[in-house]
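I am writing to request your help with a piece of structural work I have in hand. Here, with my thanks, is the record as I have it:
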Amino acid sequence: MTPRDLIRPRSARIAALAVSAIALSAGSALAGSGGVGSGGSGSTSTSSSDGAFPVRGKHTYGDGLGAGRGHQGQDLLAKCGKPVVAAYPGRIQLNSYQGAAGNYVVVDGKGKLEDTVYMHLRERSPLRKRQRVAAGDVLGRVGDTGRATACHLHFEVWSNPGYYEGGSPMNPEPMLRALDRKH
């Protein structure tokens, strides 16, 4: 399943929520998410063709797309220093610092997947531009660099052709919640 499959039109999301509500009332394994997740085992790589939740460790969901101020992604609040991993495979397109974003990494999906962006990393990622990454590979650590008021990962998904290449930010929350349930 690709990020595009998980970011569906509103009508499809409503139908999926209805199915989820039925599953929850039946006591399925989806119960207990409540906005707080465990984020997996803390291993440095859990490669998967289906993707990986980008924060390894306990986390909560903060501001999402828009948030009344043009916010272009989803904030995932977690302790500083928790591993940040690639949600999907690709190549490192950018590994830089910018005043608002702090230390950040862009993973280019190379036309097969959308680009994913990871901001406010504690320090600059050791990965090099054009380096290939798999889902679950460590990109850095949760931080509060740039214009951040608390430790968190700001996560963005950009439609093709990509991050500031003609694409536009997409709502990553449905994708993140689906990945969160798997880990």
